[in-house]
TrEMBL record:
Residues 309-319 have a biased composition (Polar residues). PROSITE patterns: CN_HYDROLASE (PS50263), NITRIL_CHT_2 (PS00921). NCBIfam families: nitrile_sll0784 (TIGR04048). Transmembrane segments: none annotated. Belongs to the carbon-nitrogen hydrolase superfamily. Nitrilase family. InterPro entries: C-N_Hydrolase (IPR003010), C-N_Hydrolase_sf (IPR036526), Nitrilase (IPR023919), Nitrilase/CN_hydratase_CS (IPR000132), Nitrilases_CHs (IPR044149). Residues 7-273 form the CN hydrolase domain. CDD domains: nitrilases_CHs (cd07564). This is Nit6803 family nitriliase. Residues 309-348 are annotated as: Disordered. It comes from the Bacteria.
Amino acid sequence: MEKKTSVRVAAAQIAPDLTSREKTLARVLETIREAAAKGAELIVFPETFVPWYPYFSFVLPPVLSGKEHVRLYEEAVIVPSAATDAVSAAAREHGIVVVLGVNERDHGSLYNAQLLFDADGTLILKRRKITPTFHERMIWGQGDASGLKVVDSAVGRLGALACWEHYNPLARYALMAQHEDIHIAQFPGSMVGPIFADQMEVTIRHHALESGCFVVNATGWLTDEQITSITPDAGLQKALRGGCMTAIVSPEGKHVVPPLTEGEGLLIADLDMSLIVKRKRMMDSVGHYARPELLHLVMDGRATAPMVATSQPSFTSAEARTLSDGEYDTSSDRDSDQRIAVLRSPAR
């Protein structure tokens, strides 16, 4: 696929519907149409936007959060499902790459998942946040490194991380080493206050500089009415404001357009892809500026599973036969011992 010289991208800072997956999904589909009408070839939505980020877990004690946690299960997204089919169809209809954060339900567990749909509607990446942060650990399970990969898309090579995964330098380096053109960042937004937005900005601008790629970051927004519905406590409501930094950053660490830190909106920007080479000519962290003979990353990229079915060698009757005096054939014992050692070795 020939590399594009310019890509128009969009980052959405909008509010979910805290009552319904379908209503939030309707907002997603409406925003995809809006971005495509403005010529966007890529759109990024906030972290776990469908059905909504679990804001309740940040302000409610665990003993009081059960009802909301169960409701999140009921509204969560199964992959694949009618919800993902709808996003896929919208991407295909409008010829736009869509990156959507969802609460993924896999039987009895929830995961913070990032879904990347190519412009033809194909789901080219589903990855799960490898380590949920603080309060999130009571909501989501852990992902594995099988999702730490960069994928080819209609707009270039894309990699993605969620929220404080950007504070894991090895996770970032794993994507850098696979040569991202555009890095997708997603944060919840409407949390912690202005310091969260400040920290977020430093983080995404640094990654753009270090990776020599563009970063498109989307954060969510909560209305005052929604904040009140989460908690009536005025003190706790302060923890659900601020922390928005929807932004598009160049490989030189500069904002391509002014960031969005308040209210709902859609950032649109044209990316000059030649800036990637301009930056990497000077400093390529995984190329001429690397010293892999001194420092390099080893990543276990296998998908994990609670059970792995495998076929093991079985013993034949000849190996188990006994001699007339009641003693075992020692040659067969040696073979059996070797096979038992294989059985007892740790699974790979």
